[in-house]
Write a structure and sequence with these properties.
about 0% strand; mainly alpha; about 90 residues
């Protein structure tokens, strides 16, 4: 399990690079307000499912269907906060 916020943030960045094929430089520039779902063409519903599974594996967390909502994919910051809430509890 990831044990600090910075590690979680970097893990989320790595997942976006690895799964969506985005450049490391582009993802490194993401901040809390960077829009994701709807702004990244590659982040469709199938990619969301794959991303959630990969976050579970890399962070050692469990994500239930009830945990998932559209808001968590609106921005990079929202996704990181969601992952951190799961991993740090």
């Amino acid at each position: 399990m990831a044990d600090d916020f910075d590690t979680i943030q970097e893990t989320v960045r790595a997942c976006l690079v690895d799964l969506l094929g985005l450049s490391r430089a582009r993802v490194a520039a993401f901040d809390d307000n960077t829009p994701l779902f709807g702004a990244l063409p590659d982040l469709d519903s199938m990619a969301v499912a794959t991303l959630l599974t990969e976050l579970e594996v890399r962070l050692g967390i469990s994500i239930d269907d009830d945990d998932v909502d559209v808001e968590m994919f609106e921005t990079f910051g929202a996704l990181v906060r969601f992952a951190a809430a799961k991993a740090l509890n």
